[in-house]
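Hello again, I could really use a second opinion on something today. I've dropped the whole record in just underneath, so have a look.
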Amino acid sequence: MPCYCTINGEPVSASRKLLTGLLREEMGFDGLVVSDYSAIANVHHVQRLYESETEAGLHFHGRPVSDDLADSLLNGLLECWNPSEYGAEAIVSVLTGAYNSSGKLPLSVARSAGQIPVYYNHPNGSSYHQGESIGFADYVDLPHTPRYFFGYGLSYTSFAYEGLTIHQPKIAPEDTVQISFTVKNTGSVTGTEIVQLYVRDCYARMVRPVQELAYLDENMHWLIEAGEIDVLVGASSNDIRLTGSFRIRESRHIQGRDRAFWAEASQTAEII
């Protein structure tokens, strides 16, 4: 880690002469060079250096970090969390392209602490789904939407979604609905896509989460309610590629112990 100071007016943490010319070319260092947040902030806010450079950043932390500098300066950001002993090896594999990352965020990252709470399954008509009902599209100083949405994550390749089929357009509360679609790697690099399937009750007796299914009624009993259910398939909670719907014919209460928290899934791979 370079020191937090300047030499001849140039920050050490941004010195190409020291970090590349001396450290790597003359001394032969081939590892990672890291710096702390304050040093990078100094480079950006005080020195205004290298704003046009193509760079990637690493986040090491035990909680989500919302970083204006990363958004404005970096072309890529790798969320490393607390990676333990073999973290460095995994990080280098991703940065060099030896491994194509496929991770997706398990939470929503707010732009500011004043925006909290921000989460994908908020009640319908609230948070960043309020629309025009509140009279203004955004806050005074930032958008309503999170910086990074639940389920967000990039890859070195791209994927196309197509052919959504809902095999049972009408079901009873105890029935199973089968949903199928095709995901195709459209890039030149081998990769894995974490496909996400969300559902939404169009109309319900209680305010429902904008993306969820089974829920409690006004008496706190688990209820599968009759009506139209939207199906949304995509790469994140905000990047929806396919949509469809099915209808539940009648309502029925279920025992909490019988409620399923997962669904069976299968896949067929075709290598072209």
Residues 6-129 form one domain. DSSP finds four helices and 13 strands in the chain. The first helix runs from residue 16 to 26. The first strand starts at residue 6 and ends at 7.
